[in-house]
């Protein structure tokens, strides 16, 4: 397992915003202590962004001339966001060489759609560019692989990723998320290649794992060469932003279940805002290594 990271992602912040440098720093400190190996992230280029985003959206973020109550225009955000995309791409490349990789970066990405705000979403949801989508599109364009399954376990629906890969025959998108009175308000039902598993209320670990089992069965049927995971940890029961009732321990089980599929895997950090997140991440990565 390789951790793709750059300290530069800790440089920017918005006072009072839950998507803070501390959340990444705390994960970094724990993974470092546990002896994980790190590799430096590098920014992606504009052409990479244009593989999934419109020119208009890329220009908007680059200029800094936009207003979004959740997703502030911060000086340098275009470069920070490109660094997070570059880390996802690097993780994908490492996974194709046969080693699992985790992109430990911010900002997150799964709410960013083709033209920014995904259809039906009120805001960009802390995301500027869709890190995992660019990495997956790049893997498919390179022609090394033909099919990718994207599994999104963030507590919020991966609406941007769904929008980008809707009806793409090379991609199976699966999202397990909380639904009802929660951002972004989409993902109530499955649409063709986008399978949604909405939870109306917080659930037990057992219930979540049972549903995840169905979802992973769909991935086996699809038979992808590569699995990309949008790993948010805001489904933990103490998460201050969302929360779905999960314990920290459940993430070890989730990791092991994914590992048992025996495919190439890369992981991209999405949300997760509570104090338990570092332990959840550690459990998840250990589970992935064990299975
Ligand atoms: Zn989330």
Task: Note down, in words, how this protein is organized.
- The protein is α/β, with parallel strands linked by helices and 291 residues long.
- The chain has a single domain, classed as Histone deacetylase domain (Arginase, Chain A, 3-Layer(aba) Sandwich), CATH 3.40.800.
- It contains 9 helices and 10 strands.
- The chain has an 8-stranded parallel sheet with strand order 2-1-3-10-9-6-7-8, with helices on both faces.
- Bound molecules: zinc ion.
Task: For this entry, give a set of tags.
globular, 10 strands, Arginase, Chain A, 291 residues, alpha/beta, two-stranded antiparallel sheet, 9 helices, eight-stranded parallel beta sheet, binds zinc ion
In short:
With 291 residues, the protein is α/β, with parallel strands linked by helices. The protein has helices at residues 21-33, 46-49, 55-63, 77-96, 131-141, 159-165, 205-222, 250-259, 277-290; strands at 2-5, 37-40, 101-103, 112-113, 116-117, 148-152, 171-178, 194-199, 226-231, 264-269.
